[in-house]
Design goal:
five-stranded parallel sheet, Rossmann fold, alpha/beta, 40% helix
C-alpha cells in the first residue's frame, strides 16, 4: 500500500479514535484530525505551511467527514470545500462521509457533491471493509 494521508473531521473523540485505529490496521500512517469543519477548512487553507511542515504527507488524499458538528457541520464543510477546492489545488482530494445518520436524505445531499465518493455509517465499518474502500486510492 502506497503511503496515504487522511484527515478525520469529527467532533467525537471516541469516533476519531475508532476510525484512527481502523486506518492504522489498514496500513495508513499519516492521519490528521480536526474536531469541526471550520478547523478542517483552516488547516486546508494553510496548505503551503502544512505542506512544508508535513513534507510528503500533506494534503490528505481522503477526508472522512462527520455531518453533525459544532461551528461548521459536514454539509457546511462540503459547500465551503467546493468553493476552495480548485483554488487550493485539492482536486484529487475526496470525501468519505462518516456519520451515524442513516437518513436517505443525508446520503442524497452528500452525493450531490462529485468529490464525495462514499457514505459510511458509523459502527458498520469493519477493518476489512475499510481496506477495500482505501484500495483505489493507494
Amino acid at each position: 500500500m502506497k503511503e496515504l494521508s487522511v484527515l478525520i473531521v469529527d467532533d467525537s473523540e471516541i469516533d476519531r479514535y475508532i476510525l484512527t485505529r481502523q486506518l492504522r490496521e489498514s496500513g495508513v500512517k499519516n492521519i490528521f484530525e480536526q474536531d469541526d469543519g471550520s478547523s478542517a477548512i483552516k488547516q486546508l487553507e494553510e496548505f503551503e505551511a502544512n505542506s512544508d511542515l508535513y513534507e510528503g504527507k500533506f494534503p490528505p488524499v481522503i477526508i472522512f467527514l462527520d455531518i453533525n458538528m459544532p461551528n461548521l457541520g459536514g454539509f457546511g464543510f462540503l459547500k465551503k470545500f467546493a468553493e476552495v477546492r480548485k483554488e487550493l489545488g485539492l482536486e484529487s482530494c475526496v470525501i468519505m462521509m462518516y456519520s451515524s445518520s442513516e437518513r436517505q436524505e443525508d446520503k442524497e445531499n452528500a452525493y450531490q457533491f462529485d468529490f464525495v465518493k462514499d457514505y459510511i455509517v458509523k459502527g458498520e465499518l469493519t477493518s476489512e471493509d475499510l481496506k477495500r474502500k482505501l484500495t483505489p486510492f493507494c
